Amino acid sequence: xxxxxxxxxxxxxxxxxxxxxxxxxxxxxxxxxxxxxxxxxxxxxxxxxxxxxxxxxxxxxxxxxxxxxxxxxxxxxxxxxxxxxxxxxxxxxxxxxxxxxxxxxxxxxxxxxxxxxxxxxxxxxxxxxxxxxxxxxxxxxxxxxxxxxxxxxxxxxxxxxxxxxxxxxxxxxxxxxxxxxxxxxxxxxxxxxxxxxxxxxxxxxxxxxxxxxxxxxxxxxxxxxxxxxxxxxxxxxxxxxxxxxxxxxxxxxxx
Length: 255
Prior knowledge:
single chain, alpha+beta, four-stranded mixed beta sheet, 11 helices, 60% helix
């Protein structure tokens, strides 16, 4: 299990986190979860006492090593291993990680896991992590993943007491949620439903432009255009889409 950015809200299984990166990662109880039959073989491997037939006798060891590699490489800056119970594999690994060698010193140091305050992130770190998640959401083509990333970004901004960024994140997240609702197959809409949907889209586009989310205005328009009446589509293009293109053009000329 991975706990990312030292926050219980950002919890993944290691396989689930594949392809993602985080500033701080806690790998929780990895060695405790190693099957009892592999605890001693893992210890022998870590302490460089394994025989040549290790792979043949214990093929699952290779799978566990790849899984651990995936977990470790999710981390950008700070990596913590937390084990809630002592195990043969965990104790051997901690011994290897914290033992000094002549060439490079120890790979890791032991920490007091009761000192949560000492491991927590600063406000600036929360803001940085929130911006990173928001940028990942912007580039994600998977709307469910984008929504999850934005929820994490909002949470980080809230921890930093940055109300302005949290509000921006909520607007962006609301738009992504709306786009999820518009995914095909489309439900048949009554005229009343259509009017509500069109009004909602117009208000959201206005909020997005106000916050400078021009890319999201275009994303929303692309998602909702097939459901709009000709009149509403023309109005949205006139009020918002042309304005976005003009703003993008002005920004491009100013660079």
